[in-house]
């Protein structure tokens, strides 16, 4: 795992709650709001289950700490999106909270329903981008959520031990996190 | 000599678009080689932080800076380190990805703090 320069993180005392909201303007319509909301809920929950940080959806986009939106092309942050595939999304290190997804992608929450060969799993990308929001940079571990690339129709939404160690070194462990599971994974990975 | 589709190399810096049958043609390229399409890889590696800016001009010459960038990319992405445009490396570059730079020396605006 890697951090951004200066190891930035959300700095208020732990445990803490971060609010997130979806842009009322910059959204897609190929998925329902419920599907998008649920995909992000699952993504946020994965990180919240390993660190003493929880995430709550806020109604007021303007005051939310994490702002999520889908954008086309040049959207004013100096990193224009490039259309279908190529770059899928980007986000910003703490404590900016901006999480941007390329609206040109064929976003999917169920590959059984979305048949396109270019479909991209929303939950996997959301989980990855939340890792950036929390302060993790890209990992060299191919199985890690924080590995930078994702093939169309692939799903990589479960945190790898590399992701967990990285984020816990920034925020500490969630008291409810089963450290035995981490040890088990370590052991099985080593034996593997 | 394989004829490459010039249109394939007019993509944004974030996209490597090469037909599969053309990937092989890059394998033997090394320092000093000039080959249509190298500039596209230079743009890509610069965009994601592996080589410094070429003053916004990217030639099709396989130079030493490009080789260093390739090696960094292969190390960072857990690929076999060859310093060449081998098929695994080119294929990896063609996979969709996150737009955040892989290194800490580029796209500094992505690493800001809100005050």
Tags for this model:
heterodimer; A: 192 residues; alpha/beta; five-stranded mixed β-sheet; two-stranded parallel sheet; 4 helices; 28% helix; disordered C terminus; B: 115 residues; 2% strand
Topology:
The complex is a heterodimer of chains A (192) and B (115).
Chain A: E1 16-22, H1 33-48, E2 53-57, E3 66-71, E4 87-91, E5 98-102, E6 106-108, E7 119-121, H2 122-134, H3 161-171, H4 179-191
Parallel strand pairs in A: 1-2, 1-3, 3-5, 6-7
Antiparallel strand pairs in A: 4-5
Helix pairs in contact in A: 1-2
Chain B: H1 20-23, H2 38-47, H3 64-76, H4 87-94, E1 97-98
Give an overview of the whole structure.
Helix content of chain A is 28%, strand content 18%. Chain A contains four helices and seven strands, in the order E-H-E-E-E-E-E-E-H-H-H. In chain A, the strands form two sheets. Chain A has a five-stranded mixed sheet, with helices on one face. The longest helix of chain A is centred in the N-terminal third of the chain and has 16 residues, at 33-48. Chain A starts with 15 loop residues before the first strand and ends with a helix. The model of chain A is unreliable at 187-192 (pLDDT under 50). In chain B, 30% of the residues lie in helices and 2% in strands. Chain B starts with 19 loop residues before the first helix and ends in a 17-residue tail after the last strand. In chain B, 37% of the residues are buried. The interface between A and B is medium-sized, with 39 and 26 residues. Strand 4 (87-91) of chain A pairs parallel with strand 1 (97-98) of chain B, so a sheet runs across the interface.
Side by side, the strands of the main sheet of chain A go 2-1-3-5-4
Number of helical elements of chain A = 4
Structural class of chain B: mainly alpha
Q: Spell the H/E element sequence of chain A.
A: EHEEEEEEHHH
């Amino acid at each position: 795992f890697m951090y951004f320069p200066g190891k930035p993180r959300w700095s208020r005392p732990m445990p803490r709650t971060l609010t997130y909201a979806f842009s009322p303007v910059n959204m897609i319509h190929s998925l329902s709001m419920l599907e998008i909301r649920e995909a992000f809920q699952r993504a946020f929950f994965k990180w919240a289950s390993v660190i003493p940080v929880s995430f709550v959806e806020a109604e007021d986009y303007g005051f939310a700490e994490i702002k999520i939106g889908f954008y086309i092309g040049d959207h004013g942050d100096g990193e224009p999106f490039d259309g279908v595939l190529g770059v899928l999304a980007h986000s910003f290190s703490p404590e900016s909270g901006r999480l941007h997804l390329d609206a040109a992608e064929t976003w999917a929450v169920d590959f059984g329903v979305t048949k396109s060969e270019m479909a991209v799993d929303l939950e996997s990308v959301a989980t990855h981008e939340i890792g950036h929001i929390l302060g993790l940079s890209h990992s060299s571990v191919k199985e890690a959520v924080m590995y930078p690339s994702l093939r169309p129709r692939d799903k990589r939404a479960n945190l790898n031990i590399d992701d967990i160690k990285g984020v816990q070194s920034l925020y500490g462990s969630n008291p409810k996190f089963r450290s035995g599971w981490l040890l088990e994974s370590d052991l099985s990975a080593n034996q593997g | 000599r394989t004829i490459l589709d010039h249109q394939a190399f007019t993509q944004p810096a974030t996209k490597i678009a090469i037909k599969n049958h053309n990937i092989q043609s890059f394998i033997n390229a090394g320092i000093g080689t000039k080959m249509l399409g190298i500039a596209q890889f230079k743009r890509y590696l610069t965009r994601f932080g592996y080589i410094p800016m070429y003053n916004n001009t990217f030639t099709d010459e396989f130079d030493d800076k490009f080789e260093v960038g390739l090696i960094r990319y292969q190390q960072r992405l857990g690929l076999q380190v060859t310093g060449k445009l081998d098929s695994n490396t080119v294929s990896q570059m063609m996979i969709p990805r996150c737009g955040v730079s892989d290194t800490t020396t580029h796209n500094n605006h992505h690493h800001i703090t809100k005050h």
